[in-house]
Amino acid sequence: MSVNLATPINADLATRFMESLNSQAIDYCHWKSNLSLSQALAGEEDLDILVDRKALPNIIGLLTDLGFKAAVLKSGANVPGIFHYYGIDARTGGICHVHLFSRVLTGESFVKSHTLPFESMLLDNCDYIGPVRVASRSAELALFVLRTFIKYGSLLDLLRVAGDPEAIRTELRWLKEGGDAAEAVSLLEKHCPVIDRALFFKCIETLEDPTSIAQRMRVARTVRRRLRIYAKYTPLTRLLAYAQLLSIKLRQRLTGNRKNKTLHAGGAIVAFVGADATGKSTLVNETGRWLGSVFAVRRVHVGKPPSSWATLPVNLLLPLMRRWLPHLRRSGVSDRGLPADVPSLPKAGQGPRSLIYAVRAAALAWDRYRLLIKVRAWAANGDIVICDRYPTDIIEAMDSPRLRELSAKGGIKAALYNRLARFENALYRNMPPPDAVLRLRVSVETAKQRNRNRRDEVGMDDEDYLVARHREIRDWYKHGTKYIHDIDTEQSLEATILNVKKAVWESL
Q: What does pTM read for this prediction?
């Protein structure tokens, strides 16, 4: 039975990686689940690579040269001898995961429970499937049988393996067709003599026949008892490991992070800035979904920060003030990109109007400041935070400081206005910069057409207002930002998304 290696989605990166391993004569093999190798090459599953520990510096250097980035578990123990590297395929934007091992740590799915003495057995008995050096089927058969019965000895794993016995039988048949059970026994006698011939064939017979779960569990107890010298945990430490795992899962649920990986280089703040009709919301959502499939990711809308207790009264009163004082509404292009939930820009010295505006601008600055302090803390803790909009240093630009101090100081109103202006400007100066910014650009003509097309979805902005927003975003700048990428969104959505993924990955 042959493995189907049709052109995979991530063929470029995965194939280049494998060919580089071969050309450098690195001692490695893909050591498990070779029946599903095509899915692994396509980025749908991990590439499980076992490497001789002496070759670790070479393979890590190779991965780095190919643009792979090291990742670690954000919560829980990072186990010595296991490494995670992720790379992006430049042709498709798909993420390839190389799960690198310098020892055979396997067993239970949720907590790798056994360190088996099979490194030389697997590395010395290899074949090739396409460009990939894989463990021979006889060697993999020996490992597969033991891995399976370790799982049958775990109540949590039992729910998984018992639910799909046919998948186990399918992989077992594939291994036996291309391998030799007698050779597998000989390998076990050499590398793991605690598993004798009779027990090994009993295991195969139990997997092949429609035996009950109880029978499989009895065989599993025997296998695990023989392998106890290779067990990673005592009964107590195993219980503690599962308790820690449960705690991590609960924390992920509470924080909204479904993944527990973070880049070894640390977290990052990635901001998307652009005028209306540049595709900002679509690209923010796509980037969050793409990175969130692997890493701990959060998404925030900096343009519309949540209210704090201090600003909630102001934010609740604003709609009522608009109704009672309609002359405070936004006045189009003269407001130079002011968000719809902010009153129009007043002229200096307009009394109550200017003070109301200043209070609202200061409240918005406070909410943004509080949100971005949290964002920086999340990034410092390893999260990748995707921001929709981000303040700039340019006064009166979109999502930026709105207030300038009045030069003519006269009376208490001017003094209060100036105090609020200083407060607002200080908040914006102290907002932490993002690590990477993607400035989305599109021609004004295209923006106008997209604006007309979405009339029935979210409403259409005034075109003069739209033009003003586009002028402002060209000059977006915040001191301390490490990377600024200009993204042309005139092209197709597919091409734009690919360019965004490349720019984001380069910045992480």
A: 0.85
